[in-house]
Amino acid sequence: MIATPDFGAARFKTSSFSEGTGTCVEVAVVPGFAAVRDTKHRAGGHLTLAAPAFDTLVRRVTVRF
């Protein structure tokens, strides 16, 4: 069975490195999962990632940029 995390009460945060142009993503974390959403389209939902997948994404993006 696949767990379905509840992000209803989660607080989404924008990176302190964002430029204020609205071309950023926000991240919320709950135990075992992270959610990523577009700051320009918050109502469009979010992408849910298991914690290990989110860690891998962050490491790979950090290395490339």
TrEMBL record:
Tell me the protein's name. Uncharacterized protein DUF397
Q: Where is the DUF397 domain?
A: 11-61
**Pfam families in UniProt:** DUF397
Superkingdom assignment: Bacteria
Q: Give the InterPro entries listed for this entry.
A: DUF397
